[in-house]
């Protein structure tokens, strides 16, 4: 079946003051303007012409698939891109001026490098997560760097193919005796209390733990990225895939949300990972394009503990909101309550989480 590709592009020759949505389904190709609040089809240019006239990370951004009839969704997406990447109109040409957000072979921001080495790309995420002491240094600078990392191209060679092992049991770890910490939360959600769990006010349909997202081209584990949980949720007849980072005591919410955004980036780019639940649940006739989101799951005390953990939470919340404003994708901080069997969001970017 045809694979749809959704890209926000700035083509001043077509519309001088707004980003446009370009949808390519390997057949019909349309350029749409939602800046007025409703859809207007600008034209049907070729893929080559659109991508030759735009620059990845500056005037060209691949975005999550979503129905083109949802004018409100695409109006908000367009508004976010215009506010982030365009400034006022040039008085001579009447065209919007693209903000100076550098994207070159050397540098995306003052500490974000573009590389063809996946290991270097991966290490940059880790650098943004880590800090010592009670307070996060330069939070605004770090938020910008994380957003720039999201926009930076991912070096090739990390992609995994289909793995039959992922089609078996939900809980994939061998030893279930004396489970503690994150492993116990995994087992409680996927096995022990699976039928009773309410996750972000949704029904938990399926899921697995220890979800591998990358492969190390050199055969080791240095570049492995793994999600604690990959879940399929259902609400009002609609499905959502949620990639989760679980925490009990280790590190803080700033560290966790950056881990989760990195996982979401790889999930977005991995067709085999996004297609997993279609293969695990053939009777559900799931769509090829299921919305995805990220979620950090932890006990309440993880967020509230005095010191680094409590101090990091406002910065994590600010990153979540700016990330949603830029991408339209939801990530959230959520609390796991064993007594009620509920996972409840306490911080998210948009009004509607799922």
In short:
With 354 residues, the chain is an alpha+beta fold. It contains 10 helices and 14 strands. The chain has helices spanning 47-52, 71-85, 118-129, 139-151, 181-192, 253-269, 271-274, 276-280, 300-304, 308-327; strands spanning 5-9, 20-24, 29-33, 40-43, 60-63, 86-89, 96-98, 198-199, 202-212, 226-235, 238-246, 292-298, 331-337, 342-348.
Question: Secondary-structure blueprint of this entry?
Answer:
Blueprint: E1 5-9, E2 20-24, E3 29-33, E4 40-43, H1 47-52, E5 60-63, H2 71-85, E6 86-89, E7 96-98, H3 118-129, H4 139-151, H5 181-192, E8 198-199, E9 202-212, E10 226-235, E11 238-246, H6 253-269, H7 271-274, H8 276-280, E12 292-298, H9 300-304, H10 308-327, E13 331-337, E14 342-348
Polypeptide structure, described:
The protein is α+β, with helices and mostly antiparallel strands. 31% of the residues lie in helices and 23% in strands. The protein is built from ten helices and 14 strands. The chain has helices at 47-52, 71-85, 118-129, 139-151, 181-192, 253-269, 271-274, 276-280, 300-304, 308-327; strands spanning 5-9, 20-24, 29-33, 40-43, 60-63, 86-89, 96-98, 198-199, 202-212, 226-235, 238-246, 292-298, 331-337, 342-348. A seven-stranded mixed beta barrel has the order 8-9-10-11-12-13-14. A five-stranded antiparallel beta sheet has the order 4-3-2-1-5. A two-stranded antiparallel sheet has the order 6-7. β3 (29-33) and β4 form a beta hairpin. It is globular, with a radius of gyration of 21 Å. The two termini are 26 Å apart. Mean pLDDT is 87; it is low at 101-110.
């Amino acid at each position: 079946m045809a694979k749809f590709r959704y890209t926000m592009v700035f083509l001043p020759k077509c519309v001088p003051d707004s980003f446009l949505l370009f949808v390519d389904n390997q057949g019909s190709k349309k350029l749409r303007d939602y800046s007025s609040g409703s859809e207007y089809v600008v034209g049907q240019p070729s893929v080559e012409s659109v991508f030759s006239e735009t620059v990845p990370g500056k005037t060209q951004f691949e975005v999550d698939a979503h129905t083109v009839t949802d004018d409100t969704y695409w109006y908000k997406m367009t508004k976010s891109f215009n506010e982030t990447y365009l400034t006022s109109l040039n008085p001579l040409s009447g065209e919007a001026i693209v903000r100076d957000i550098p994207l070159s072979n050397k540098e995306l921001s003052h500490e974000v490098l573009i590389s063809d080495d996946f290991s270097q790309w991966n290490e940059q995420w880790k650098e943004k997560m880590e800090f010592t002491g009670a307070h996060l240094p330069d939070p605004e600078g770090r938020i910008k760097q994380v957003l720039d990392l999201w926009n930076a191209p991912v070096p090739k060679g990390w992609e995994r193919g289909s793995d039959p092992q992922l089609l078996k049991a939900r809980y994939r770890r061998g030893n279930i005796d004396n489970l503690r910490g994150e492993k116990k939360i995994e087992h409680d959600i996927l096995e022990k209390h699976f039928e009773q769990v309410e996750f972000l006010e949704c029904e938990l349909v399926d899921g697995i733990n220890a979800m591998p997202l990358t492969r190390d081209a050199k055969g080791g584990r240095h570049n492995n990225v793994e999600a604690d949980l990959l879940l399929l949720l259902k609400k009002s007849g609609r499905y959502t895939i949620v990639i989760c980072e679980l925490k009990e005591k280790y590190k803080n919410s700033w560290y966790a949300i950056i881990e989760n955004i990195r996982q979401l980036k790889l999930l977005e780019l991995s067709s085999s990972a996004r297609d997993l639940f279609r293969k695990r649940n053939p009777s559900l006739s799931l769509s090829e394009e299921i919305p995805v989101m990220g979620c950090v799951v932890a006990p309440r005390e993880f967020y509230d503990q005095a010191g680094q953990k409590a101090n990091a939470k406002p910065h994590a919340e600010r990153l979540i909101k700016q990330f949603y404003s830029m991408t339209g994708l939801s990530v959230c901080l959520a609390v796991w309550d064993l007594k009620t069997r509920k996972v409840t969001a306490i911080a998210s970017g948009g009004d509607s989480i799922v």
